[in-house]
Amino acid sequence: MSFKKVFIDQAKPFDLTVLEVDASDSPTYPLLEFVGFGVKMLMDIVATDANYPRKNEIWQGKLDGLIASTSDFCWLTKAWPISVFIDSNKDEWQFDHRHLKRALSENGWNSAPVAYYKRKKTGNELLDSLSDSSVMTLMGLYVNATDGGNPENASRDDFKIVSRIMDDEQLPRTEKNVNTLLGVTGIYNRFPKKGHKSTIGNIRNEIIENKKKSTRVFNTSKVEVDDWIRSNPMFGKNNYSSVDGVSTRHKVLDKSFTYRYANDILKWAFEAWVKGERVRISAGSYAICESEIEVERQEIVDAIKDILNNTINWYISKVENMLSILSIKLPHVDANDLPIDLYWIPQIEGEIEAIRVPL
Question: By 3-state DSSP, what share of the chain in percent is helix, strand and coil, each rounded to 5?
Fold first, then answer.
């Protein structure tokens, strides 16, 4: 890499023509898209307060190096500018390169080059639903975690910021949700498998298990669940509803048996399909923590969809390929097409009646 420096006249706005970088040099932020360079007065670059400080964020050696490299108003032509996020309101927030801004300020710079970013559409429902604050926090961590030259920038505990984000976004602490968020933090670059076999697993488990006991739950014992079913004739354990004659079943949620129970639900659905009936299933947890009930609910829905997509529909696609010469197209199974009505029984404060679950 070239370390050529050029003098920047402070009487004029920063001259972008001196930059010997382009879009291909940008950090590959999973949640942000590079949209171009610009120039801002240093005093107008506002740092987001959403990017929670990380343990190793203030690193004196890094700051000293940047102060030295930008002294005498000289700029390294291969240096990447200050990263700025543009939100949907066109407001601009600095979310990375804080040390660079501080160094320029200490050296008396007037203006600075910036690299602009906007939200990237990932196609992942969870990631695309995150607030801008959480995205900036995750991407600030990502660029530090993937800085191969300075692995100290992202410590083991820094990745636990995912726990804070899950609280802010009110996300159930399912393994799938935690893995999705960790996947965009750069954790797999920071802790490659070799030599770090259990590190990521331990971080993941600590985030998942960070739950508090709740006094807001009810209907969490077998007796309470049985009483609720008896007082709600639309539901039952293995019979037909006295209200409308629909077949009824009940499933206890338990994250230790998520896939087994998801298969049971699908089995009931296909049995009803063969009979030309519908089946109404009530499901409840014996957990005493509000967050754990939410996790078990989410995981059973995820498991049902996973079994359909990666097992049943996989076999259908395999048969289609085998019969490709005949141009036969077989119908794939969508959860919404199954003759199944899944409900959560009310178990968390604010829930009054059974809650229909969209599949």
Answer: 45, 15, 40
Name which of 335, 258, 337 is nearest 300 in CA terms: 258
60-78, pLDDT tens digit by residue? 667 788 888 899 999 999 9
Q: Which residue in 278, 293, 274 sits closest to 342, CA to CA?
A: 278
Rounded average pLDDT per 10-residue block, the chain, 359 residues: 82 94 93 96 87 49 82 92 94 89 92 96 96 93 77 76 88 89 92 73 85 81 92 95 96 90 93 94 91 90 87 59 58 80 95 94
Rg of the chain over Cα atoms, rounded to whole angstroms, equals 27
Those residues whose C-beta lies under 8 Å from the C-beta of residue 326, and which sit 6 or more positions away, are none
Of 104, 99, 105, 198, the C-alpha closest to 153 is 99
Q: Is 128 helix (H, G, I), strand (E, B) or coil?
A: helix
Q: Are 282 and 340 in contact (CB under 8 A)?
A: no
C-alpha atoms less than 13 angstroms from C-alpha of 242 in its C-beta half-sphere: 7
Query: What are the structural domain ranges in the chain?
Result: 5-208, 222-356
Q: What is the largest CA-CA distance in the chain?
A: 85
Specify which residues 40 forms β-bridges with: 112
Which value, to the nearest 10 degrees, does the dihedral of the CA atoms of residues 334, 337, 340, 341 take?
100
Q: Residue 79 pairs with which residues in a beta bridge? A: none
Cα gap 118→29, rounded to integer Å: 10
**Helix (H, G, I), strand (E, B), or coil: what is residue 188?**
helix
Enter the pTM of the model.
0.67
According to DSSP, the β-strands at 355-356 and 340-344 are antiparallel
Within 10 angstroms of residue 352's Cβ, the number of other Cβ atoms is 6
Find residue 251's DSSP bridge partners.
Answer: 283
- Residues 359 and 344: their CA atoms lie apart, in Å, by 13
Tens-place pLDDT, residues 208-235: 876 667 788 999 988 999 999 999 999 9
| Amino acid occupying residue 25 | D
**Token reading at 220:** 């969490």
- Side by side, the strands of the sheet bearing 355-356 are 238-240, 247-253, 279-285, 340-344, 355-356
Cα distances (angstroms) measured from residue 287 to each of 218, 219, 253 = 10, 10, 9
